Amino acid sequence: MALFWNSGIQAEYFERFPRGLNPVLVNDVVFSFHTTIALFVVLLQCVIYERGEQRVSTITRGILGIFGIVVTVCAILAAIDIIHWLSFLYVCGYIKLTTTVIMTMPQMFMNYKRKSTVGWSIYGVFIDLTGGVFSMLQMILNAYNY
């Protein structure tokens, strides 16, 4: 959203990529907004509904703590003009990518260990795959049109 609405960050992007095209379109902003709302609904459900004995693991807390420190340090460095805000956004993107990779590992491990996918819905994979294919198609079409 910052690359879509913030003219300062857009200027940093075009300074770094002078022949580039702003990769963020309206549909990207709508998707980000929708995802944020969905995330808050899930977090609200985590607070409201009974969890029984489920707790956030120590490893997860550690990873989130490291991510929090990295984001905080990079935000401070961007605020005092040591790094560009665009670089800060790249760091946030790398953290999102790492989170996406890490969150699939427990399910993959359980599937491997049990040699079964019982209790695991294939629809989530179809949704992720469809979104990824359309995202790549959008980038290819943007590159072709540019």
TrEMBL record:
Q: Name one GO cellular component term.
A: lysosomal membrane
Q: Which UniProt keywords apply?
A: Membrane, Repeat, Transmembrane, Transmembrane helix, Transport
Q: Which InterPro entries match?
A: LC_transporter (IPR005282), PQ-loop_rpt (IPR006603)
- Asked if the record carries the keyword Nuclease, the reply is no
Which branch of life, at top level?
Eukaryota
Q: Name one GO molecular function term.
A: L-cystine transmembrane transporter activity
Kindly give the Gene3D superfamilies that the UniProt entry links to this protein.
Answer: 1.20.1280.290
Write down what this protein is called. Uncharacterized protein
Q: Which organism is it from?
A: Phlebotomus papatasi
